[in-house]
Design a protein that fits this description.
With about 140 residues, the chain is an alpha+beta fold. The protein has 2 domains: about 45 residues; about 80 residues, no CATH class. The chain contains 3 helices and 8 strands.
Length: about 140
């Protein structure tokens, strides 16, 4: 008999217990992946389907993307901006600061950042490739 604390267990019981714990961990892993997929999908749908116009309150990195909030708007938005010639290859979260203006129409494929009267255009990852990695 093998003892765990004050509990004595046979080798068979220990194998059953270990297997059960392993199965629970595997199930929890897949549940967390499903939750992560739903969260990303919901965040993207919220960002994509919202007209965003206003003054930037804050910007930060989150989940390999960028989170920002518009002044006098209770929502926060997460998106995955792409650096390109459209924005002079400037990384969004390095360039954008409090007080800059953000403009994005509903279902638009480009977000406009206006900084000191200069316009920077940012396309962004469409959500589908992230879903494919979580299947």
């Amino acid at each position: 008999m093998i003892g765990i604390g004050n509990i004595k267990m046979s080798k068979k019981a220990k194998v059953i217990l270990s297997t059960s714990v392993l199965l629970i961990l595997i199930v929890l892993y897949f549940i967390s992946k499903k939750h992560e997929k739903n969260r990303w999908e919901n965040e993207f749908i919220h960002f994509d389907s919202t007209e965003i116009v206003g003054e930037l309150e804050y910007v930060a990195l989150v989940s390999h993307g960028v989170v920002f909030k518009i002044k006098n708007n209770r929502d926060r938005f997460i998106f995955y901006p792409l650096t390109s010639d459209l924005n002079e290859n400037r990384i969004f979260d390095h360039l954008a600061t409090k007080g800059d203006t953000i403009i994005k129409g509903k279902f638009a494929d480009t977000l406009k950042l206006i900084k000191k009267n200069k316009k920077y255009l940012y396309t962004f990852d469409q959500f589908q490739w992230r879903l494919d990695t979580l299947k």
